[in-house]
Amino acid sequence: MKAAVITFPGSNCDRDLAVAFERIGAEVVRVWHKDAELPKGIDIVGIPGGFSFGDYLRCGAIAAQSPVAAAVKDFAGKGGYVIGICNGFQILTETGLLPGALLRNAGLKYVCKALDLRVETADSAFTSGWHKGSLVRIPIAHHDGNYTIDDEGLKRLKDEDRIAFTYADNPNGATADIAGVLSANRRVLGMMPHPERMAEPEHGGTDGSVLFRSLAATMALA
Amino acid sequence: MKARVHVMLKDGVLDPQGEAVRHALGTLGFSGVEAVRQGKVIELDLAATDRAAAEAEVARMCEKLLANTVIEKYTVEIG
């Protein structure tokens, strides 16, 4: 398994994400935002958390126009796997690869804590290691995680079983408690919580590692 | 030529910041503020001299970057 992890100016979870991929035996290639092409032979692209371009204009808006974003869109369009975590999720909605948008938390505060998520579907390469309905403990750390989507879009997500995770106790006002969503082909995942920050015993828990192990299992079968 | 872009959240999209401002105004004694919506203004200096062309160009900028049309609406003023 070969993973590309992108770094934008202001990314700050890129190394953590790279380590999480390495822990499952993946070869990790670090990619700079100005690179117009992704490395050859990669199985998945990771878009990390942080504050790309200082969150100027809107979170993720500038990163979504960077040269590497065009390459990620192309990769996803060909059926490639992509995971965007936190700012990565914001970037994926700004590129249009995932529906909806992330607005300022309803409570207006930056929220940084571990909380319970409900796995809403096990039908994806990212969540196959869990059962639908599993409760998992994974931290969030964001100011703009209030997932917003119109009624029609929400219905589509529900009908197509594309809500990956919901919050057991909604911390940010997100529509339908949504913490993470999948693309129509189920190969692009965006999520506000940080599985890479709960992936080793020293992190205080390992629930997040299930996501990376699920990916490894899928890639091994491919 | 100057262009001014107003970007606002679409009607129906909850604006927590606007709501906080409304609450703060109430605390300061400004009664009767029934709603506050907060947006942004972006000013552009353009080399273009043709008004219609500039307006069309700025609209394209809005669609591509300046606004997120999933949640935001925009208006463009030229001149």
TrEMBL record, chain A:
Per the UniProt record, which residue ranges are transmembrane? none
Q: What is this protein called?
A: Phosphoribosylformylglycinamidine synthase subunit PurQ
Copy the pathway line from the protein's UniProt record. Answer: Purine metabolism; IMP biosynthesis via de novo pathway; 5-amino-1-(5-phospho-D-ribosyl)imidazole from N(2)-formyl-N(1)-(5-phospho-D-ribosyl)glycinamide: step 1/2
Task: Kindly give the HAMAP family that the UniProt entry links to this protein.
Answer: PurQ
Q: Which CDD domains match?
A: GATase1_FGAR_AT
**Where would you say this protein principally sits, based on its record?**
cytoplasm
Q: Cite the EC number.
A: 6.3.5.3, 3.5.1.2
Signal peptide segment: none
Automatic annotation (TrEMBL), chain B:
- What general EC class does the enzyme of this chain belong to? ligase
Q: Out of the domains of life, which is the source?
A: Bacteria
Presence of keyword Secreted: no
What GO molecular functions are on record for this protein? phosphoribosylformylglycinamidine synthase activity
Q: Does the keyword Ligase apply?
A: yes
Write down the EC number: 6.3.5.3
Q: Name one Pfam family in it.
A: PurS
Pathway(s) served: Purine metabolism; IMP biosynthesis via de novo pathway; 5-amino-1-(5-phospho-D-ribosyl)imidazole from N(2)-formyl-N(1)-(5-phospho-D-ribosyl)glycinamide: step 1/2
InterPro entries assigned: PurS, PurS-like_sf
Q: Which keywords has UniProt assigned to this entry? A: ATP-binding, Cytoplasm, Ligase, Nucleotide-binding, Purine biosynthesis
What is its subcellular localisation? Cytoplasm
Kindly state which reaction or reactions the protein catalyses: N(2)-formyl-N(1)-(5-phospho-beta-D-ribosyl)glycinamide + L-glutamine + ATP + H2O = 2-formamido-N(1)-(5-O-phospho-beta-D-ribosyl)acetamidine + L-glutamate + ADP + phosphate + H(+)
Q: What is its main location?
A: cytoplasm
**Of which family is this protein a member?**
Belongs to the PurS family.
What's this chain's function? Answer: Part of the phosphoribosylformylglycinamidine synthase complex involved in the purines biosynthetic pathway. Catalyzes the ATP-dependent conversion of formylglycinamide ribonucleotide (FGAR) and glutamine to yield formylglycinamidine ribonucleotide (FGAM) and glutamate. The FGAM synthase complex is composed of three subunits. PurQ produces an ammonia molecule by converting glutamine to glutamate. PurL transfers the ammonia molecule to FGAR to form FGAM in an ATP-dependent manner.
Q: How does it assemble?
A: Part of the FGAM synthase complex composed of 1 PurL, 1 PurQ and 2 PurS subunits.
- Which NCBIfam families does the record associate with it? phosphoribosylformylglycinamidine synthase subunit PurS, PRK05974.1
- The name this protein goes by in its record: Phosphoribosylformylglycinamidine synthase subunit PurS
What does UniProt list as this organism's lineage?
Bacteria, Pseudomonadati, Pseudomonadota, Alphaproteobacteria, Rhodobacterales
